[in-house]
Amino acid sequence: MAKYWLRVALDVPLAGLFDYYHEEPVAIGTRVLVSFGVRQLIGMVIQTPEQPEYNAEQVKAIRMVLDDVSPMPRDWLALAQFAAQYYHRPLGEVVIPVLPSPLRRPAAYTGKLSKGGPVARLRARQKKSSTPPKRAKAIAAPELTAEQAAALEQIHIDQGARRYLLFGVTGSGKTETYMRVALQVLAQGKQVLFMVPEINLTPQFEHMLRGRLVDEHNQPYRIAVMHSGLAAGKRLENWLQVYEGDANVLLGTRLALFTPMPNLGLIIVDEEHDHSYKQQEGLRYSARDLALWRGQQQQIPVVLGSATPSLESWHHAQQGHYQLLTLSQRAKSVPLPAIELVDTRRAQLEQGYSPQLITALEKTLEAGQQALIFLNRRGYAPVLHCGSCGWLSQCPHCSAYAVLHKGYKHYMQCHHCGGQSPVAKHCPDCGYVDLTPLGKGTQRVEEYLAQRFPQARVLRIDADSTRRKGSAEALFAQVHAGEVDILVGTQMVSKGHDFSRLALVGVLNADTMLFAQDFRAPERLFSQLMQVAGRAGRHQTGARVLVQTDYPEHVVYQALVQQDYPLFAEHQLQQRQQVGLPPFVYLALITAESKQLDQAMAFLRHAKQWAQHPELPGMEHVFVYDAVPLRIMRVANIERAQLLIESPNRLALHAFIRAWAPQLDELAKYYRCKFVLEIDPQDI
Ligand code: ADP
Ligand code: ZN
Ligand code: ZN
């Protein structure tokens, strides 16, 4: 019997590939079912060597070749290999988790109910219910604005791996521009990958693509969507459509990046600055960065778009690495709303509301228009306070306060560990009975506005009011139907929505976002306020945005008033260059977790000691900071500390980490810690 040796990637937390054999040749990129210890796992064949690395006598046979999907193509494997190498994770942690779940669940192939596997069952279902494609209800194409036309002219779809940054204010017609480029690529018979940060927030967007992406006979191009909200079977179906070339367009969130596309001709990354492109668990990748790599590898254009680009992308554009395309005007003749600052140090506040904001609300209501009050904090009040002894409602499990929530029953909830507890009736320290809520969350804002403007219909949209499935859509439908006069909301309301009668946006508590310690806080605040301001006055003139702040002279607010992103970006980049922050240096971050802070800190200190070893490659270009506890040090009784690693030289940083990081597994065990290594961390 012949033995064909296979090196297989498995989704296990061990470095390297695993040896198996089969009696017949198996192509690279094929999924196989194997035994691993007592478990069965689905892995992927990565190499077919002459000889195994392991003792040949002990190498086991695979249990099954899963050829219901054709072997993953070379370019896809190259992308996965790059991601594994760049983020310093085993290849199996990339190639397996990114597959639709039915393709990586052994039970889908071995169980009694799974004759033929999930793909065969899907095909059987499709056969029964196949419907002919519908003719498109095509949406008419608008005539391009001069700026759109100029941008389009500069985008070349046939000149290899070009990178573009489409910098366009909200409503400037970026989407229209993407669609025009996409149509050119589709007309050549190629596929388009269209990435958006959160697909469930943008049904209007999908509707638009479906209506506009039609061929010259008005036949719709086939669009497949991909996001984590899809049922597993549906996701598999869409994935197969794209992989087999039946779908022309893939519209999806970050996970769509890892879909094999045999005929890819263009990648679009909308809202490229959005943090949702960064995966925060498992393989902590940036889908935007990998999209750029994929474009390079496939020699196709990548178009990044944003009204407030990430400083990294802006810097690349300034350096000439990306071609900058600017849309400075709104596509429709409605100008951008005016943004005004209300200096809260000088105003007589009424429970935190300035007279300017109150008057503006009154006027908006009188005119029968809508207002939005934006505040990034849910719940009633962020903390409960004892006026007698100074007690504060600390979460017992975290270094954070428990937040007061009102409802059918009032309760305290910690927003870090999720733990809930009853509201204290008296101070646990001194017994004082009159505990006061400090500060305000969306519920308190809602309560106040309903009292202050009894004639107005007030609606709150945040993570609490939309917990039930489908409730977010229902609430947004109320807003669109004009059944709401004042909308109170968190960042959930700031993205994507086109509220036709919205004439006033009021922003509360922006300063707390500004002074978060994270070095990206100003960037994040600027982009969030531009977004939320962009919700106003999309269809009529005279809309206003009022931002209450104690620091109106701060550059974030000054640039905001002028709606001048380039001014803001230039200032921030200068600062970052001075103090040595990205994009002028490259960062990696190790976060350690332990029951005791001492253990986590000791582990990181020891790790830092090892980092000083003179034989580590690249170490002369790498700076390792001291270990520090996280700002919110304890969450759910786990203590957390971190170690930041910095280098002006990306190659040196990676060479260093490649040599240093693998030793840390043992060290972490010794200190009874868990740790994660993150490349290009977002939140530090
Ligand atoms: P962005 O993506 O930049 O926020 P959109 O592409 O959503 O902007 O466009 C904003 C609005 O302007 C949409 O209602 C869109 O249909 C409309 N629009 C886009 N381009 C044009 C154009 N050339 N002429 C008229 N309306 C346009
Ligand atoms: Zn007390
Ligand atoms: Zn907690």
Main beta-sheet annotation: 7 strands, parallel
Beta strands, count: 29
Residue runs with pLDDT of under 50 for 5 or more positions: none
The CATH fourth-level homologous superfamily of the largest domain: P-loop containing nucleotide triphosphate hydrolases
CA distance, first residue to last residue: 56 Å
**Portion of residues within helices:** 25-40%
Determine the structural class based on helices, strands and strand pairing: alpha/beta
Q: What is the number of domains?
A: 4
CATH-defined fold name of the largest domain: Rossmann fold
The pLDDT mean sits at: 93
**Roughly what fraction of the amino acids lie in strands?**
15-25%
Q: What is bound: which ligands? A: adenosine-5'-diphosphate, zinc ion
Radius of gyration over all CA atoms, rounded: 27 Å
Provide the CATH architecture of the largest domain: 3-Layer(aba) Sandwich
Give me the side-by-side strand order of the main sheet.
9-10-8-11-12-7-13
Give the CATH level 1 class of the largest domain: Alpha Beta
Number of helices: 20
Name the shape in a single word: globular
Describe this structure in words.
This protein has 684 residues and is of the alpha/beta class. The strands form 6 sheets. Strands 9-10-8-11-12-7-13 form a 7-stranded parallel sheet, with helices on both faces. A 6-stranded mixed sheet has the order 5-2-1-4-3-6. Strands 14-24-23-15-22-21 form a 6-stranded parallel sheet, sandwiched between helices. Helix 5 packs across helix 6 and helix 16 packs antiparallel against helix 17. The longest helix has 15 residues, at 565-579. The protein starts with a strand and ends in a 5-residue tail after the last strand. Adenosine-5'-diphosphate is lined by residues 142-145, 148, 168, 170-176, 331-332.
